[in-house]
Design brief:
The complex is a heterodimer of chains A (about 250) and B (about 100).
Chain A lengths: L1 E6 L13 H4 L2 H4 L2 E5 L8 H11 L6 E4 L2 H4 L4 H10 L3 E2 L3 E7 L2 E8 L5 E2 L2 E2 L6 H26 L4 E6 L22 H10 L3 E4 L8 E3 L5 E4 L2 H4 L4 E5 L10 H5 L1
Parallel strand pairs in A: 1-2, 2-3, 3-4, 6-9, 9-10, 10-12
Antiparallel strand pairs in A: 1-13, 5-6, 7-8, 11-12
Helix pairs in contact in A: 3-5, 6-7
Chain B lengths: L17 H14 L8 E5 L2 E8 L2 H14 L5 E7 L9 E2 L2
Parallel strand pairs in B: 2-3
Antiparallel strand pairs in B: 1-2
Classes of the chains: A alpha/beta (about 250), B alpha+beta (about 100).
Chain lengths: ~250, ~100
Protein backbone atom coordinates (compact mmCIF):
# COMPACT_ATOMS: atom_id res chain seq x y z
CA UNK A 1 0.00 0.00 0.00
CA UNK A 2 1.20 3.48 -0.88
CA UNK A 3 0.25 6.33 1.45
CA UNK A 4 -0.11 9.65 -0.33
CA UNK A 5 -0.49 12.88 1.63
CA UNK A 6 -1.62 15.90 -0.31
CA UNK A 7 -2.68 19.50 0.11
CA UNK A 8 -2.90 22.56 -2.11
CA UNK A 9 -3.77 26.21 -1.77
CA UNK A 10 -2.02 26.78 1.52
CA UNK A 11 -1.45 30.42 0.50
CA UNK A 12 1.36 31.13 2.92
CA UNK A 13 2.59 34.58 3.77
CA UNK A 14 4.76 36.12 6.47
CA UNK A 15 2.06 35.52 9.09
CA UNK A 16 1.87 31.79 8.26
CA UNK A 17 5.23 30.54 9.50
CA UNK A 18 4.82 27.47 11.66
CA UNK A 19 1.09 27.06 11.04
CA UNK A 20 1.39 23.80 9.10
CA UNK A 21 4.69 22.52 10.47
CA UNK A 22 3.25 20.68 13.53
CA UNK A 23 0.89 18.69 11.30
CA UNK A 24 3.57 18.14 8.65
CA UNK A 25 5.87 16.68 11.30
CA UNK A 26 3.39 13.79 11.73
CA UNK A 27 3.82 12.82 8.05
CA UNK A 28 6.47 10.11 8.53
CA UNK A 29 3.95 8.22 10.67
CA UNK A 30 1.13 8.32 8.15
CA UNK A 31 2.46 8.94 4.63
CA UNK A 32 5.15 7.94 2.14
CA UNK A 33 5.24 11.32 0.41
CA UNK A 34 3.65 14.75 0.47
CA UNK A 35 2.17 16.33 -2.65
CA UNK A 36 1.73 20.10 -2.81
CA UNK A 37 -0.86 21.05 -5.43
CA UNK A 38 0.11 24.66 -6.05
CA UNK A 39 -0.89 28.07 -4.68
CA UNK A 40 1.61 27.63 -1.93
CA UNK A 41 2.00 31.42 -1.63
CA UNK A 42 -0.26 34.44 -1.99
CA UNK A 43 1.67 36.43 -4.60
CA UNK A 44 4.55 34.16 -5.60
CA UNK A 45 7.22 36.28 -3.95
CA UNK A 46 10.53 34.80 -2.82
CA UNK A 47 9.77 35.97 0.73
CA UNK A 48 6.51 34.01 0.79
CA UNK A 49 8.09 30.91 -0.77
CA UNK A 50 10.81 30.97 1.87
CA UNK A 51 8.02 30.60 4.45
CA UNK A 52 6.79 27.52 2.57
CA UNK A 53 10.35 26.19 2.23
CA UNK A 54 10.92 26.35 5.99
CA UNK A 55 7.58 24.62 6.51
CA UNK A 56 8.52 21.60 4.36
CA UNK A 57 12.27 21.32 4.91
CA UNK A 58 13.54 18.02 6.42
CA UNK A 59 10.10 16.52 6.89
CA UNK A 60 11.29 12.93 6.65
CA UNK A 61 9.12 12.20 3.59
CA UNK A 62 9.73 13.30 0.01
CA UNK A 63 7.87 16.44 -1.02
CA UNK A 64 6.67 16.87 -4.61
CA UNK A 65 5.12 20.17 -5.67
CA UNK A 66 3.68 22.09 -8.58
CA UNK A 67 3.16 25.83 -8.63
CA UNK A 68 -0.25 27.47 -8.87
CA UNK A 69 -1.47 30.70 -10.41
CA UNK A 70 -0.76 32.65 -7.20
CA UNK A 71 2.83 31.39 -7.28
CA UNK A 72 3.17 32.98 -10.73
CA UNK A 73 1.74 36.37 -9.77
CA UNK A 74 5.12 37.99 -9.09
CA UNK A 75 6.43 36.67 -12.45
CA UNK A 76 9.28 34.79 -10.78
CA UNK A 77 8.26 31.13 -11.10
CA UNK A 78 11.83 29.91 -11.63
CA UNK A 79 13.14 31.79 -8.62
CA UNK A 80 10.42 30.58 -6.26
CA UNK A 81 10.75 27.02 -7.62
CA UNK A 82 14.47 27.15 -6.83
CA UNK A 83 13.72 28.24 -3.25
CA UNK A 84 11.47 25.23 -2.81
CA UNK A 85 14.05 22.91 -4.41
CA UNK A 86 16.71 24.21 -2.05
CA UNK A 87 14.48 22.98 0.77
CA UNK A 88 14.61 19.49 -0.77
CA UNK A 89 11.28 19.47 -2.64
CA UNK A 90 10.82 18.21 -6.19
CA UNK A 91 9.12 21.00 -8.13
CA UNK A 92 7.55 19.81 -11.37
CA UNK A 93 6.40 21.68 -14.44
CA UNK A 94 5.70 19.26 -17.24
CA UNK A 95 8.04 16.70 -15.73
CA UNK A 96 7.93 13.52 -13.70
CA UNK A 97 9.86 12.24 -10.75
CA UNK A 98 10.11 8.89 -9.01
CA UNK A 99 10.29 8.64 -5.24
CA UNK A 100 10.98 5.36 -3.50
CA UNK A 101 9.44 4.30 -0.24
CA UNK A 102 9.77 0.90 1.37
CA UNK A 103 10.77 -0.68 -1.93
CA UNK A 104 7.89 0.80 -3.92
CA UNK A 105 8.44 3.26 -6.72
CA UNK A 106 5.94 6.09 -6.82
CA UNK A 107 5.92 8.16 -9.98
CA UNK A 108 4.54 11.68 -9.90
CA UNK A 109 3.96 13.69 -13.07
CA UNK A 110 3.24 17.34 -12.42
CA UNK A 111 2.20 20.52 -14.11
CA UNK A 112 0.38 23.65 -13.07
CA UNK A 113 -2.15 23.11 -15.84
CA UNK A 114 -4.51 25.89 -16.84
CA UNK A 115 -8.12 26.71 -17.64
CA UNK A 116 -10.24 26.49 -20.74
CA UNK A 117 -13.20 24.53 -19.46
CA UNK A 118 -14.78 21.19 -20.07
CA UNK A 119 -16.16 19.34 -23.06
CA UNK A 120 -18.99 21.22 -24.75
CA UNK A 121 -18.42 24.30 -22.60
CA UNK A 122 -14.83 25.19 -23.33
CA UNK A 123 -12.68 27.80 -24.96
CA UNK A 124 -11.36 27.07 -28.45
CA UNK A 125 -8.05 27.86 -30.08
CA UNK A 126 -9.65 30.45 -32.32
CA UNK A 127 -9.85 34.17 -32.90
CA UNK A 128 -7.76 36.76 -31.12
CA UNK A 129 -4.11 35.94 -30.40
CA UNK A 130 -4.67 36.19 -26.67
CA UNK A 131 -7.54 33.69 -26.87
CA UNK A 132 -5.46 31.25 -28.91
CA UNK A 133 -2.58 31.62 -26.48
CA UNK A 134 -4.91 30.93 -23.55
CA UNK A 135 -5.91 27.58 -25.01
CA UNK A 136 -2.40 26.76 -26.22
CA UNK A 137 -1.07 27.30 -22.70
CA UNK A 138 -3.50 24.63 -21.46
CA UNK A 139 -2.66 22.33 -24.33
CA UNK A 140 1.10 22.57 -23.77
CA UNK A 141 0.58 21.83 -20.13
CA UNK A 142 -1.61 18.81 -20.85
CA UNK A 143 0.79 17.49 -23.50
CA UNK A 144 3.70 17.71 -21.08
CA UNK A 145 1.68 15.93 -18.41
CA UNK A 146 0.85 13.10 -20.79
CA UNK A 147 4.46 12.71 -21.85
CA UNK A 148 5.65 12.73 -18.23
CA UNK A 149 3.10 10.04 -17.27
CA UNK A 150 4.11 7.91 -20.26
CA UNK A 151 7.78 8.15 -19.27
CA UNK A 152 6.94 7.11 -15.73
CA UNK A 153 5.16 4.07 -17.15
CA UNK A 154 8.28 3.15 -19.12
CA UNK A 155 10.31 3.47 -15.93
CA UNK A 156 8.19 0.79 -14.25
CA UNK A 157 6.61 2.63 -11.34
CA UNK A 158 4.36 0.82 -8.87
CA UNK A 159 1.94 3.73 -8.98
CA UNK A 160 1.62 6.86 -11.04
CA UNK A 161 0.05 10.08 -9.84
CA UNK A 162 -0.89 13.14 -11.87
CA UNK A 163 -0.35 16.31 -9.84
CA UNK A 164 -1.81 19.59 -11.10
CA UNK A 165 -3.03 22.87 -9.72
CA UNK A 166 -5.94 23.34 -12.12
CA UNK A 167 -8.62 20.69 -12.22
CA UNK A 168 -8.82 18.01 -14.92
CA UNK A 169 -12.54 17.43 -14.30
CA UNK A 170 -15.69 19.36 -13.47
CA UNK A 171 -16.74 16.89 -10.75
CA UNK A 172 -14.45 18.39 -8.14
CA UNK A 173 -15.59 21.93 -8.93
CA UNK A 174 -19.11 21.31 -7.61
CA UNK A 175 -19.85 24.19 -5.29
CA UNK A 176 -18.08 26.77 -7.44
CA UNK A 177 -20.17 29.08 -9.66
CA UNK A 178 -20.71 27.36 -13.01
CA UNK A 179 -19.74 30.56 -14.80
CA UNK A 180 -16.13 30.34 -13.63
CA UNK A 181 -15.50 26.67 -14.47
CA UNK A 182 -13.45 27.62 -17.57
CA UNK A 183 -11.04 29.42 -15.24
CA UNK A 184 -10.76 26.47 -12.90
CA UNK A 185 -9.63 23.67 -15.15
CA UNK A 186 -9.51 21.98 -18.50
CA UNK A 187 -10.64 18.67 -19.91
CA UNK A 188 -7.31 18.59 -21.76
CA UNK A 189 -5.66 17.57 -18.50
CA UNK A 190 -8.11 14.70 -18.02
CA UNK A 191 -7.64 13.58 -21.60
CA UNK A 192 -3.87 13.49 -21.03
CA UNK A 193 -4.32 11.52 -17.81
CA UNK A 194 -6.70 9.03 -19.42
CA UNK A 195 -4.47 8.63 -22.46
CA UNK A 196 -1.28 7.97 -20.53
CA UNK A 197 -2.91 6.29 -17.54
CA UNK A 198 -2.58 7.10 -13.86
CA UNK A 199 -3.67 5.68 -10.53
CA UNK A 200 -4.74 8.97 -9.03
CA UNK A 201 -5.04 12.62 -10.03
CA UNK A 202 -4.62 15.33 -7.42
CA UNK A 203 -5.32 19.03 -7.86
CA UNK A 204 -6.21 22.21 -5.99
CA UNK A 205 -7.35 25.70 -7.09
CA UNK A 206 -11.10 25.29 -6.51
CA UNK A 207 -11.58 26.45 -2.92
CA UNK A 208 -15.35 26.05 -3.00
CA UNK A 209 -15.29 22.75 -4.85
CA UNK A 210 -15.55 19.19 -3.56
CA UNK A 211 -12.95 16.56 -2.87
CA UNK A 212 -14.06 13.60 -4.96
CA UNK A 213 -14.27 13.15 -8.70
CA UNK A 214 -13.30 10.87 -11.55
CA UNK A 215 -12.15 11.27 -15.13
CA UNK A 216 -14.27 9.78 -17.88
CA UNK A 217 -11.53 7.15 -18.24
CA UNK A 218 -12.00 6.08 -14.61
CA UNK A 219 -9.05 7.73 -12.88
CA UNK A 220 -9.94 8.99 -9.43
CA UNK A 221 -9.50 12.72 -8.92
CA UNK A 222 -9.09 14.45 -5.58
CA UNK A 223 -9.36 18.19 -5.00
CA UNK A 224 -7.02 18.80 -2.08
CA UNK A 225 -7.38 22.58 -1.83
CA UNK A 226 -6.99 23.22 1.88
CA UNK A 227 -10.36 24.98 2.20
CA UNK A 228 -11.96 21.87 0.69
CA UNK A 229 -10.28 19.23 2.83
CA UNK A 230 -10.35 21.37 5.98
CA UNK A 231 -7.07 19.92 7.28
CA UNK A 232 -3.33 20.44 6.90
CA UNK A 233 -3.41 17.57 4.37
CA UNK A 234 -5.38 14.46 3.46
CA UNK A 235 -3.99 10.95 3.11
CA UNK A 236 -4.97 8.46 0.40
CA UNK A 237 -4.07 4.78 0.61
CA UNK A 238 -3.38 3.35 -2.80
CA UNK A 239 -2.97 -0.41 -3.27
CA UNK A 240 0.25 -1.39 -5.05
CA UNK A 241 -0.66 -2.90 -8.38
CA UNK A 242 1.19 -5.60 -10.24
CA UNK A 243 4.13 -4.28 -12.24
CA UNK A 244 3.05 -3.08 -15.66
CA UNK A 245 3.85 -5.47 -18.47
CA UNK A 246 2.51 -3.42 -21.36
CA UNK A 247 2.20 0.19 -22.31
CA UNK A 248 -1.62 0.13 -22.19
CA UNK A 249 -1.75 3.04 -19.80
CA UNK A 250 -5.43 3.78 -20.23
CA UNK A 251 -6.29 0.22 -19.16
CA UNK A 252 -4.28 0.57 -16.00
CA UNK A 253 -6.28 3.63 -15.18
CA UNK A 254 -9.62 1.84 -15.18
CA UNK B 1 -42.75 63.26 -20.09
CA UNK B 2 -39.62 61.51 -20.83
CA UNK B 3 -38.06 59.64 -17.97
CA UNK B 4 -35.03 58.66 -19.97
CA UNK B 5 -31.97 58.95 -17.78
CA UNK B 6 -33.96 59.59 -14.64
CA UNK B 7 -35.57 56.23 -14.05
CA UNK B 8 -34.70 54.55 -10.80
CA UNK B 9 -33.41 51.17 -11.91
CA UNK B 10 -32.62 50.27 -8.36
CA UNK B 11 -28.91 50.55 -8.92
CA UNK B 12 -28.50 54.28 -8.39
CA UNK B 13 -25.51 56.17 -9.76
CA UNK B 14 -22.64 53.88 -10.78
CA UNK B 15 -20.52 55.01 -7.84
CA UNK B 16 -23.25 53.83 -5.45
CA UNK B 17 -24.25 50.72 -7.36
CA UNK B 18 -23.61 47.72 -5.11
CA UNK B 19 -22.89 45.38 -8.03
CA UNK B 20 -20.03 47.52 -9.30
CA UNK B 21 -18.79 48.26 -5.80
CA UNK B 22 -18.57 44.52 -5.15
CA UNK B 23 -16.66 44.02 -8.40
CA UNK B 24 -14.21 46.77 -7.45
CA UNK B 25 -13.82 45.35 -3.97
CA UNK B 26 -12.93 41.96 -5.39
CA UNK B 27 -10.34 43.57 -7.65
CA UNK B 28 -8.90 45.35 -4.62
CA UNK B 29 -8.77 42.14 -2.56
CA UNK B 30 -7.02 40.30 -5.40
CA UNK B 31 -4.48 43.00 -6.17
CA UNK B 32 -3.71 44.06 -2.62
CA UNK B 33 -1.53 42.68 0.14
CA UNK B 34 -3.65 39.59 0.54
CA UNK B 35 -3.89 38.42 -3.08
CA UNK B 36 -7.25 37.09 -2.06
CA UNK B 37 -9.36 35.45 -4.77
CA UNK B 38 -11.24 32.99 -2.61
CA UNK B 39 -13.69 35.27 -0.86
CA UNK B 40 -17.20 35.35 -2.27
CA UNK B 41 -18.91 38.72 -1.90
CA UNK B 42 -22.67 38.78 -2.50
CA UNK B 43 -25.60 41.01 -1.73
CA UNK B 44 -28.32 39.91 0.64
CA UNK B 45 -31.07 42.49 0.42
CA UNK B 46 -29.36 45.76 1.31
CA UNK B 47 -26.44 44.10 3.04
CA UNK B 48 -23.24 42.41 1.88
CA UNK B 49 -22.36 38.81 2.74
CA UNK B 50 -18.81 37.45 2.76
CA UNK B 51 -18.19 33.71 2.52
CA UNK B 52 -15.12 31.58 1.95
CA UNK B 53 -12.06 30.20 3.69
CA UNK B 54 -8.98 32.33 4.31
CA UNK B 55 -5.47 31.28 5.37
CA UNK B 56 -5.17 33.08 8.71
CA UNK B 57 -6.89 35.24 11.30
CA UNK B 58 -4.87 38.34 10.29
CA UNK B 59 -6.05 37.74 6.69
CA UNK B 60 -9.66 37.56 7.83
CA UNK B 61 -9.28 40.74 9.87
CA UNK B 62 -7.67 42.58 6.98
CA UNK B 63 -10.42 41.50 4.58
CA UNK B 64 -13.11 42.63 6.99
CA UNK B 65 -11.36 45.95 7.51
CA UNK B 66 -11.12 46.47 3.74
CA UNK B 67 -14.74 45.51 3.14
CA UNK B 68 -16.07 47.74 5.90
CA UNK B 69 -14.02 50.61 4.52
CA UNK B 70 -15.35 50.05 0.97
CA UNK B 71 -18.92 49.60 2.15
CA UNK B 72 -19.18 52.27 4.81
CA UNK B 73 -22.84 52.57 5.75
CA UNK B 74 -23.77 49.17 4.32
CA UNK B 75 -24.29 46.30 6.78
CA UNK B 76 -21.60 43.63 6.22
CA UNK B 77 -22.15 40.06 7.38
CA UNK B 78 -19.07 37.86 7.51
CA UNK B 79 -19.15 34.08 7.34
CA UNK B 80 -15.42 33.86 6.60
CA UNK B 81 -13.71 30.80 8.00
CA UNK B 82 -10.01 30.43 8.82
CA UNK B 83 -8.35 27.33 7.35
CA UNK B 84 -7.99 24.36 9.65
CA UNK B 85 -4.36 23.27 9.99
CA UNK B 86 -4.67 20.06 12.01
CA UNK B 87 -3.61 16.59 10.86
CA UNK B 88 -6.31 14.36 9.40
CA UNK B 89 -7.86 11.77 11.72
CA UNK B 90 -8.23 9.13 9.01
CA UNK B 91 -7.06 8.18 5.54
CA UNK B 92 -9.17 7.36 2.50
CA UNK B 93 -8.75 3.82 1.17
CA UNK B 94 -8.63 3.87 -2.63
CA UNK B 95 -9.35 0.20 -3.20
Amino acid sequence: MIRIAAVGDIHMGPDSQGVLRPAFETLPECADLLLLAGDLTRHGTPEEMRVVAREVRDLGVPVVAVLGNHDHHDDRPDEVSAILRDAGAHVLEGQGTVVESGGTRIGVAGTKGFGGGFVGRCAGEFGEPVMKEFVRHSRRSADALRTALERLDEEGCDARIALTHYSPVADTLAGEPLEIYPFLGSYLLAEAIDTAGADLAVHGHAHAGTEHGMTSGGVRVRNVAQPVIGRAFHVYHLPVREPATSGAGAQQAG
Amino acid sequence: MSTHGSQDTGGGPPAENLDYRIAHLQERLASGELGELGVRVETRGRSVLLTGTVPSTPCRDEILRTVEEEFAGVPVHSDLVVTEASSPDHAEELA
